[in-house]
Structures are given as structure tokens and as C-alpha cells.
Amino acid sequence: MATATETTLVEAKPREAADKNAARRLRATGMIPAVFYGGGKEPRPVSVDPKKISQILGSESGYNTIFDVSLEGEKAKAMLVDWQRDPMHGRLLHVDLKRIAMDKKMRLKVPLVLRGEAPGVKTEGGVLDFVMRELDVECLPADIPKNFEVDVSNVLFATPLIRVSDLPTSEKVRVLSDPDQTIVHLTAIREEVAPVVAEVPAEGEAAAAAAAAPAEPEVIKKGKQETEGPAEEKKEEKEKDKREKDKKEKK
Question: Where are the domains of the chain?
């Protein structure tokens, strides 16, 4: 666990709260709008140098850095609470600065950093999953850690997890995160299973399969038969005699 020790001075200049056009004009001068608040005082709209803020964010302690803000001849300890960037170019557009009291504990998030090489990755072919990236803590501003180091040099498939409770403790820093929460986890690489492709039978096998298949039953169609039976012949003779009798009676 490393502790932040940088002391940086940020000069803040008063400005009038205005619209977006005023903010754009301010940025054109090389400054950016900011708000300085906290410590039981009214929020003050100010302007600051974005280069100074970028130096703080890029330092070892990053957004947990404690620095001095100079405003109208007075200095106060402060931290970065929020900042906005241009999504296209990444330039800083606006920042929020908060006054802090060095004698009062505060709650914040501290980054987790992996250290060492996991033998479960090097010798057992596993993959190290970095699940949790920040830790919630409570401490005095002077005791804020730069980060928490997570030693992975003993991570094997026999001991594949590192939890919050496995981290070294400190009397000055109280960890608020769930002690059972996983920080890193060793997992196995999943092997891809080739899809099963049905075999297409060869011509000889296809012919044999067709021969072995049961034949469809023959369907006999109903209807008039090609040859008529004796009953039909007698019927025709009777009709013929009736027609001849009708002719004689008409004469």
C-alpha cells in the first residue's frame, strides 16, 4: 500500500457564473471553468489551468492527490471530485474542486494494482481475471493510499482466488468493501468443440439403403372396371326390347 505525498499548487481565479458561450471564450484563453466548494463555504465559480489538473490526474496518486488551491490570497487543501472531458479530443472541459479538512476522515475509492506473476498462468495455462479494480476505504486525508497492491505470485488452480479479506490490513485505513468480494480469479481456457457433421453415404451405400427400405403399398382405384359382367349384359337387352316395343305401339 503506497501513500500519496505530492503537494501541488493550483491557482484559482474568480469568474462570473455564465452560459456555455462564456465557458467557450474562457477555454479559448487557455483556462477552464471550475467550481470550488466544501468546508462549510459557499461554492465559488473559478477558472483554473487545465495543465495543472492534467498533471494531478496523471500523477502516481491520481484523483486521490491532495493539493493546495490558492484563491484571492488564501490557500486551502483540496481534491478533485469530478471532471469532464471532450469526448472527441479528450481535453478537459470542467472540474470540481472540494475543500477538505485534514483532521476529518473521508470515504473514497483507491485503485487496486496487480504485482508479481501468477504461476497458474505461466505453468498451468490459466487466465487471470481481474474482477475488482477499486477498493472503498475510509481514512484521514494524510493517510490516503495511492493504491493497494495485490500479489498474484501464489495464484494456482489449487488456490485460484484472491479476495478483499486476503489484502494486508492497516490501522490507519479502514476497508469498507465486502471482505468476501473477489479481486482476481484464475480460470481455465475453454476448449472449442468441433461441430458433429453427419456422414453422407456413398453411392453404393445409398442404393443399398434404398433397396432395404420397405416398398410402398399399391393403391387400387375405385371406379368402373374395363370389362363388364353378365348382369350388365342382361340390363342392356331389357332396355333394347323396351325401345322396340315403344316403336310398335307408336305405329
Answer: 2-100, 108-187
DSSP structural state of residue 223: S
Could you tell me which CATH number the domain at 2-100 has? 2.40.240.10
What would the grid cell of residue 220 be?
Answer: 387400387
* pLDDT at residue 20, as a whole number: 86
At 13-43, the pLDDT tens digits run 999 877 889 999 999 999 999 999 998 899 9
CA distance 102 to 206: 88
Q: Which CATH superfamily is domain 108-187 in?
A: Ribosomal protein L25, C-terminal domain (2.170.120.20)
C-alpha cell at 219: 393403391
Helix (H, G, I), strand (E, B) or coil at 172: coil
3-state secondary structure of 12: strand
- pTM over 0.70, yes/no: no
Q: Could you give the CA distance from residue 133 to residue 197 in angstroms, rounded to a whole number?
A: 44
